[in-house]
Design a protein that fits this description.
Mean pLDDT of chain B: 94
Distance between the termini of chain A: 18 Å
Strand order of the largest sheet of chain B: 4-5-6-8-7
Helix content of chain B: under 10%
Oligomer: heterodimer
Largest interface: A-B, 40 and 36 residues
CATH class of chain A: Alpha Beta
Number of helices of chain A: 12
Largest sheet of chain B: 5 strands, mixed, barrel
Number of strands of chain A: 11
Number of strands of chain B: 8
Number of helices of chain B: 1
Distance between the termini of chain B: 17 Å
């Protein structure tokens, strides 16, 4: 255990608007969101001394420093595994400040993945290597060329085994869009959907995913500032402590194309992360008051609800149908509308929502929320308040 | 070989550690990397055997028979390089190894469906393994 004064706390969050065409560079989005996080906290960007983003983020550390005037960086790293890495950033942030390596550590992600390139389309520049997530070599010549297709191959056996219907998935989208409809920062603010809307949306991957089972493609940036509890005393916001942050990548697993290992039913990665969280911080995800779980595609929500221990194997569709994920439910999920309803800033906008929930400042604030769970497949974290 | 018309299918992406796999397809053989000392099969191919760490890799010829574990068809956007988006299947070979492929022929995919390997040409004159429903 680290001394309480050294405990990692989130003290700043920042973001740009979420759109389909930002009209400016990804570098600009990165700089703006980091500046916003620093101003939220009350530090100068000159003080930033640690940085983490995703391996596939196209903005650049040197240019971030150049734009923000960061004077002396002690540590930078980039993480593999795409959006599954979103919560892994907190593992690095926690270790960087609790070890004393960094005092003001920044997590950022910025992308024009709707206006400049599209995550949902086949990539035109192909590397055969896993490029931190999927071995394209074994998918591309067979016409499985999009994240939706890989996810469908990973989830088809699960859906068939437990009788998960398209309507079951639709209930998840309806829940997310209902929350987004009352979140002014959400791209789909004021635009709820019905189950009928979901059922009449076009197929993306037959016979598993419709358009409204998919997260958005978005332009935007998000940033998070982490420091120690001691240093947080001098800053503007109530600190949001990172009570636990754990990661698990298991042998022979890929990320979205995760079908070479295991029974294709159990979510081995999330199960392991849950064990580690319980061991390290004595709390299970289901015991928190609100959750943000990575929703790239609707079946992934079901498989993570099971992996993170909210319900048993095969039970997630009933857990959803019973209303537990609604804002007034037992374990409300993604009150910002998630990546389906708010925006797809690769999961980082779910972390900023977790922070708002702990501060008590969210658009759809869960009353008396004391703890929040953040999950993204291979990683999980629990936030507290005060 | 199936697909008598001019093939549009994308070529395999060349990679040193897996060229043996695609070269074998051109000869009409389905082979999988095997660790010589511990006799284990590994796919996708890799630099070392993850159990004994030997780099003595040999090509093991497969029976070409297996079953469908999962399947889908990417319709939006349509699969690049195909006149019509194909059925993509996750096959578990009888030898226990899994690989992605396509189901060709008239049958629609089913979970657990028995399939047999065939080979399809690609636009640049290479070949990939595809499967058909077992007769």
């Amino acid at each position: 255990m680290v001394a309480e004064s050294q405990q990692a706390c989130i003290v700043g969050i920042g973001q740009t608007e979420f759109s389909k065409n930002s009209g400016r560079s990804e570098q600009q989005l990165a700089a703006e969101s980091i500046l916003a996080a620093c101003r939220d906290a009350g530090i100068s960007p000159h003080q930033i001394d640690g940085l983490v983003t995703f391996a596939i983020d196209k903005s650049d550390e040197i240019d971030v420093m150049r734009s923000l005037g960061c004077e002396d960086i002690n540590y930078t790293t980039r993480l593999p595994q795409g959006g599954a890495a979103s919560v892994t950033t907190l593992v690095h942030a926690k270790n960087a400040v609790e070890s004393g390596l960094c005092d003001y550590f920044v997590i950022w992600r910025a992308m024009n993945e709707r206006s400049q390139y599209r995550f949902g389309q086949p990539s035109i520049s192909l590397s055969p290597d896993a490029h931190s997530s999927t071995f394209m070599e074994w998918c591309f010549p067979f016409g499985a060329q999009t994240p939706a297709a890989w996810e469908a191959l990973s989830c088809g056996h699960y859906m068939n085994t437990y009788g998960v219907s398209s309507e079951d998935l639709g209930k998840i989208s309806v829940t997310f869009r209902r929350a987004a409809a009352t979140n002014p920062n959400a791209f789909f603010y004021g635009k709820p959907i019905t189950l009928e809307d979901h059922q009449s949306s076009r197929w993306i991957v037959e016979p598993w995913f419709r358009l409204l089972d998919c997260c958005q493609e978005s332009d935007g940036g998000c940033a998070i500032l982490v420091t120690t509890r001691e240093k947080a005393k001098d800053l503007k916001q109530m600190p949001v402590p990172i009570l636990g942050a754990e990661y698990s990548m298991l042998f022979n697993h890929e990320i979205i194309s995760d079908f070479y290992e295991g029974d294709l039913l159990n979510n081995d990665l999330a199960l392991r992360v849950t064990e580690k969280l319980i061991n390290k911080c004595g709390m299970a995800p289901k015991d928190t008051n609100v959750a943000m779980i990575y929703d790239n595609f609707t079946p992934q929500v079901l498989r993570q609800l099971e992996g993170f221990g909210y319900c048993g194997l095969g039970e997630a569709k009933d857990y959803v149908a019973d209303g537990h994920l609604e804002l007034e439910g037992k374990t409300p999920l993604s009150p910002n509308g998630g990546l389906i309803g708010e925006a797809y800033i690769h999961g980082i906008n779910n972390i900023t929502e977790g922070v708002r929930q702990m501060r008590g400042t969210a658009a759809n604030q869960i009353k008396n929320a004391e703890t929040a769970f953040l999950g993204s497949g291979v990683a999980g974290a629990i936030l507290g308040r005060g | 070989m199936s697909e008598p018309k001019k093939a549009m299918r994308p070529d395999p992406i060349p990679r040193i550690d897996s060229n043996f796999f695609w070269e074998a397809c051109r000869r009409g053989e389905l082979v999988i990397q095997k660790c010589e000392p511990c006799d284990k099969l590994w796919h996708p191919p890799r630099a070392l055997c993850p159990i004994c760490h030997s780099s003595e890799k040999v090509e093991a010829k497969m029976s070409g028979k297996g079953k469908v574990l999962s399947w889908c068809r990417q319709v939006r956007p349509p699969s690049f390089g195909f006149p019509e988006s194909p059925w993509v299947i996750l096959v578990e070979l009888d030898e226990g190894v899994r690989l992605l492929s396509n189901l060709e022929g008239e049958s629609e995919p089913q979970f657990g469906m028995r399939v047999t390997v065939d080979f399809a040409p690609t636009s640049g004159g290479k070949a990939v393994p595809v499967f058909r429903a077992e007769a």
